[in-house]
Design a protein that fits this description.
The chain is of the alpha/beta class. It has twelve helices and 14 strands. It is globular and about 60 Å long. Mean pLDDT is 93; it is low at 1-5.
Length: 324
């Protein structure tokens, strides 16, 4: 099936993120590794948000420390689970970090997909439609609190009365907003509301995680992008202004006589044939990988990439493509 290119006349430049190191090493080494990420030319460092499965990082505290040991590196929550925080208190934390980092914050939000997190904390795991509706209210509340005027808001999930969002942001309108997800409703919300759309596999209750790579086949990736673009267009927004973010789930880059790998637990469960056809897999030498990512941007318009947690695998690609 022929799929048209979605590249704008001036495509978004390539940007690269990588994960914060885990908190299983001395703090001084942890800080040094963050500095190295900046030195290697990554645009941002990113962090997920979980309560179970051995997850130890508090995203906002860890990113605050990362801000203090760097000068250029952007700080991306990829993504915060909306149900863990009230948007009013979340805004205050984000507003402080945006100011203290010199405007380097990027706010990624999601509706939450891992039921174990909710169950462990005694939080209701509502149906997807309810969680996405609540996420939509949070987005509206945050946007308005980052604005110039006090906010009064009456929604189904949140209510505010004449609340002024302080401190006021360095960037008019607040930090860039990323909404990530894998289903149609959340991606349409992203198209209507976000600056950056994070394209993910559809995960959650009843979905086999082993299907994630297949769920991001070329056809499914195109469909997800179309949902977001169509929603943007319906909301009177220019689809070409959306920036699209995607993770490579299996990275194998040959350089310096060594194959450097960054493979997710999802990719590890799949046979080689399933990996070979996915646009979310990156295998080859540096030249081959650079060419594949250029083709990915040309075909889909995806320019903001997470190449896994192995910075040695990603570094030569970042050096070739970042900002271009």
């Amino acid at each position: 099936m022929l799929i048209e290119s979605h590249t704008a006349d001036r495509p978004h430049p390539f940007r690269f993120t990588t994960s914060l190191p885990p908190l299983d090493r001395p703090p001084s080494r942890w800080r040094d590794e963050i500095r190295r990420i900046e030195q290697l030319g990554f645009d941002s460092v990113s962090v997920s948000d979980h309560l179970t499965g051995g997850w130890a990082i508090d995203p906002l505290i860890a990113l605050t420390v990362a801000a203090e040991v760097t000068s250029r590196l952007r700080l991306l929550t990829l993504v915060l689970c909306n149900d863990f925080r009230h948007p009013v208190t979340l805004h205050r934390s984000l507003a402080n970090l945006e100011i203290l980092s010199g405007g380097r914050l990027e706010v990624g939000l999601g509706a939450g997909w891992l039921r174990a997190d909710h169950d462990a904390a005694g939080l209701p795991f509502d149906p997807p439609g309810t969680r996405i509706e609540r996420l939509g209210e949070t987005v509206e509340v945050l946007r308005r609190l980052f604005g110039p005027a006090p906010v009064t808001f009456a929604g189904r999930h949140y209510r505010l009365s004449d609340l002024d969002g302080l401190p006021k942001p360095l960037r008019p309108g607040g930090p860039p907003l990323l909404i990530g997800g894998g289903g149609r409703r959340v991606l349409e919300l992203a198209g209507r509301s976000a600056d950056i759309v994070g394209i993910n596999p559809r995960l959650g209750a009843g979905v086999d995680p082993r299907t994630a790579i297949a769920e991001l086949s070329p056809e499914r990736l195109e469909q997800k992008l179309t949902w977001a673009r169509d929603a943007a267009r319906s909301a009177g927004r220019a689809p070409d202004r959306l920036e699209f973010q995607l993770r490579m789930y299996d990275v194998r880059v040959r350089h310096g006589g060594v194959e450097h790998r960054a493979s997710s637990s999802l990719a590890a469960q799949l046979p080689p044939a399933a990996l070979a056809s996915s646009p979310c897999v990156l295998h080859g030498d540096v030249e081959e990988c650079v060419a594949k990512l250029r083709a990915l941007r040309d075909r889909y318009g995806v320019s903001y990439l997470h190449l896994g947690g192995n910075v040695d695998a990603a570094a030569p690609i970042v050096a070739r493509l970042a900002g271009r």
